[in-house]
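The protein record filed here.
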Amino acid sequence: MLTMLDVQPEELDEAEKTFVTNIREYGWAATHVAEEADLLGFSYTTGFWHHFGQPELILFSLPPESAHQIFWIFAEAYEAKQTFPEDQPFEGVLDQWDVILKTVSKGHYPCYVNWSRWFYNGEDFPQQQLFFPAATGDFPWEPNAPEDFVNLQPNLSKPLAK
């Protein structure tokens, strides 16, 4: 698969060069999108698929520093050839809470992961969303999850409504 790593540096602008340099150096890069008036903040990876053969990750409503630390945990695990289950809770990422990974529906890619789409020249890469529970231990789709918490993690595994 051709990626932007295959492009000559002089064909890239400065932001693109920096992005590609990070992927060359670390195997991946993180993009953090700040919260705005009606848009949740979110963070996602680019390079996990190319470097580790593992899905890219996206998560919502955590500070960039926290998201970046979580991505490093996954990068180190993937480097050690560890894998994680999908659609079931597992531990080892957040100190006291399980997390769940769900596959992101590709219809959401244009809204959320444009650097990844650019890097991979399209949408031929898997993306998983990392969900964390509320303080009650409930995930956003569970009946006892606090309503304000549910809105902090949109479920991108569901296809876009037509």
